[in-house]
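Pasting as-is:
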Amino acid sequence: MTFFQNLIGDNALIPAIIIFVLTYIGMLAFAKARAYIALGSAALFVLLGILPWRELAGAVNWNVLLMIAGTMGTVSLFIESKMPAKMAEWLIDKSPNLMWTTIWLSVLAGVISAFVDNVATVLMVAPVAVNIAKKLKVSPVSSIIAIAIASNLQGAATLVGDTTSILLAGEANMNFLDFFFFKPVGAPHWGIGMFWIVQVAFLAATSILFIIFRKDKQPIHLDEHTTVTDYVPTVLLISTIVGLILVSFLPESIHLPGAINGIVCVGIFLIGVLIYGLRSKTIKNAFKEMDYFTLLLLAGLFIVIQGINNAGVIEKIGDIFKVLSAGNLFVLYTMVVWFSVLLSAVVDNIPYVATMLPVITLLADKLGAPAYVLYFGLLSGATLGGNLTPIGASANIAGLGILRKEGYNVKAKDFMKMSVPYTLTAVLVGYVLVWVLWRNMG
């Protein structure tokens, strides 16, 4: 037993709460150092003996980390192949005017973002919108905002659409197809998955864009088109999706490794590495573009969350939610959704979702309530809620960064003129649908 373990004794609750609160404050105050703060806090939990070092490997969700890492690599190859730009140009050719072009670009961003990281999606599609604006001599601000918020919304649609979806799948033991149709253990029938709920929310939110862009009737035509010569990354990305689907069909009698989804994602990326060669410029760029910062942040957070779980903090948070909701499932669901919306508008949703998932698991168990209505409510509120403000989601920050390079400094109020009605429409639709479809399920 270390000096620090002797110091805190058996009562680890207070030290764990202090470390946890300081960790969140630190991540809010020093966003660029979030990963190092999380790792430092993780080290403290081990040093204090709250989390035994032997439990470190088990605390990290390797399936989630491998899925994110493998998908990042494959997506980087996909972007470099210029296929996303080609897809955008095809939509532009089918559009009669600027309004329809902007709407189609936001729809394309949404479709891509259901299977690709949100920030990567913005980096794919936004440059096309900038080029269009330059050609027509108009501001690209509104179209870039539309692309960013559309990509954020669709991130909740599939298992690989966003880090929060991957986190949910890890906690709730969901596979790729479960986001489309899902039958929890003990449920009387199959339920409509998050994919379809998000699509209805997306259609409702897109109707807001028609109102916003109704005056943009300038005709548009592209004189130059992107040429795609390398289709291997497209095949790899499709193979990732197909691989995840096939794994979900394997019978439970086959003993699969716990990180099977992550192994599929990393394995397909490694096939790309073999095809192009480890020393090739393409693969070097892919490794360079991978978001190691997010991977380190998640690794640290997994350890921190296991530490506060060992100390009983998660149980205390669950008790607070239980008291505030008076044990009423609808009140609890409403709190989870709208608290998530408000919090995700000002803080990164990854640490929040990672913390709340085990809380919801515990709450559902204590109340004997269906867990998935709360899981999906959390995902809806946290993912869609990030659209409210410019700093609420990484995709928004990426979009505004592109605009800044083009000489456009967007004020928060200008961003929110579009994002607030769009987001509230989507969240309200998701809030109603999740409750109606899942309040009695599993």
